[in-house]
Amino acid sequence: MSAMTTHNPLLDTSDLPLFDRIAPDHVAPAMDVLLAEADAALSSVTAADFPAHWMDIAKVLDIATERLGRAWGAVSHLNSVADTPELRAAYNAALPRVTEFWTRLGSSEALYAKYKAIDPATLNAEQQQARSNALRNFVLGGAELQGEAKTRYAAIQERQAEVSQKFSENTLDATDTWALYVDVAELAGVPQDVVDACCAAADKEGQSGKARLTLKIPTYLPVMQFATSSTLREKLYRAYTTRASDQAEGEAAKYDNTALMKEILALRQEEAKLLGYANFAQVSVVPKMAESPEKVIAFLRDLASKAKPFAQKDLADLREFAQTALGRSGELKAWDIPYLSEKLKEARYSFSEQEVKQYFTAPKVLAGLFQIIETLFEVSIRKDDAPVWHPAVEFYRIERAGQLVGQFYLDPPARAGKRGGAWMDDVRGRWLRPDTGTLQTPVAHLVCNFAEGVNGKPPLLTHDDVITLFHEFGHGLHHMLTQVNERDISGISGVEWDAVELPSQFMENFCWEWPVLRHMTAHVDTGEPLPRELFDKMLAAKNFQSGLQTLRQIEFALFDMRLHAEHDGSRDFLPLMDEVRREVAVIVPPAFNRMAHTFGHIFSGGYAAGYYSYKWAEVLSADAYAAFEETADPQGAPSIETGRRYRKEILEAGGRRPALESFKAFRGREPSLDALLRHQGMA
Ligand code: ZN
Hints:
Strand content: 5-15%
Radius of gyration: 25 Å
Oligomer: single chain
Strand order of the largest sheet: 3-4-5-9-6
Bound molecules: zinc ion
Largest sheet: 5 strands, mixed
Number of strands: 9
């Protein structure tokens, strides 16, 4: 064995990943070993004389695939948060081999037969659920395909993984490549901390005295909201909304995603046909809570019709404000809308996001979040040590009555080489290990892209950032508080995609509760908590433009569903986007806008024909939260008893049973649309 193999940190899966030691050189040799192990395990359990017994299979196969999954998970995680050319090359070189193995495993006729042969009477309830999911996934994974169809199916999976990865790289590169150096004077209106950060960035690049603008959200968004210069906003808007498209200018034109998107759509369509479905949308909803694409489309249209009058009112208000208060006539430009909206919000509610931000320092917010989790779910959270990939990363453990429940990494700041957005990912799941008989506790990644603190001050979060943080922790709690012992249905594993956002969106509600919020604020300079008066204004502004925002989500969701249900993959998809906009949108973006070209959720993120899940689960989460509203004490503090029931029926249950059953066990009835419409001021 070479040194790379004997001392390869990716092969040490005894506990937490050795993030501080993993180097690009380790990837290929580790994958050689782990893929060979997994291959051998698969051959072994599919041999004719191997017993069709759940635990016997798990002891050999699940142990090997878990080791592979954990090592590959660490590599993909680093690829997302600490991208370098070397790591990217190593990741891309290994990706087809890893995908090939998972596809082969998921479509193995012999393994499918082995699982089918297991006597269900020998299984406990959790194992039965895991087995029935497995059988369903085998069918969707092509296990019933024969001969050429089977080979083609595998080739489609491999190619899809490659193309999606390229789509995602183009998006990141198109975002990272773009920079604009401007004089500080051009940034009139932009918050000082953002200006300071842009100046520091320019300084670093040897352009002292200038400000460096990028398309990363912590810069892009405040410029769009606050810069008084419409010309500057137009420049940024154009660059942002044409990223990775045919409309991108100059150097950036090489990142055009158009051909990749068409190929992805055509591949999915072909996959659906091979599996015996009319389109990919039908395949996508099989393991989901929604019964059919038609039901989803009807749900979205129903919600759109309820939201549209509110959206029209939102737009009319904005036009009137532009005219009367600012003396602007004519059509509103797309790059003026965020700016005008911010100004209207200020005028109407007389506060700014900027003012609010001063009270939300990252450490205080985190302490407040931890406090609510500790109180409501009866756990304690404390800092711990683990190998990390960047000095900004923190590591924590969650305990109940002195017993370890789960652990998580928290990586808050935005930086170069880190994918945008926020997400939760699993490092490992809760599992009563078949090899040792010991209980493996779950570990999660919580990744955000917050602005960094400037001038030695702690980072300031917008209220939206706070909501994002709570959202991702909702996923994290679902993953970490589970009490299921079977790996494939513990935590978020095995939970229907369109129900998986229930716990995350549920947590967002707490960001609007005074008893919660007042404990997690301290002004960055004075240390004063958020004044009640300011909170009341925020609350009044909460549903500002909620009609417009709802329609925007529906526009994306309907585009995604129709793209996979009705559209011929080989044709141009832009006309469909236009058609969807004509149907549901009240603001039609400029012709050059190519937001679909960076729509990573559906082209590289697993949300294909599934973006509706956010709205679908929002109905569930709003209705679940209403149970807390109904049982809160007179001061508005949430009921511990309701928290306990929610924890037991929703969080701890994980994928042990269908999401609808868990919901009904908690709520005592079927979900209803009422709470969502009421929460968003559209009742
Ligand atoms: Zn989410």
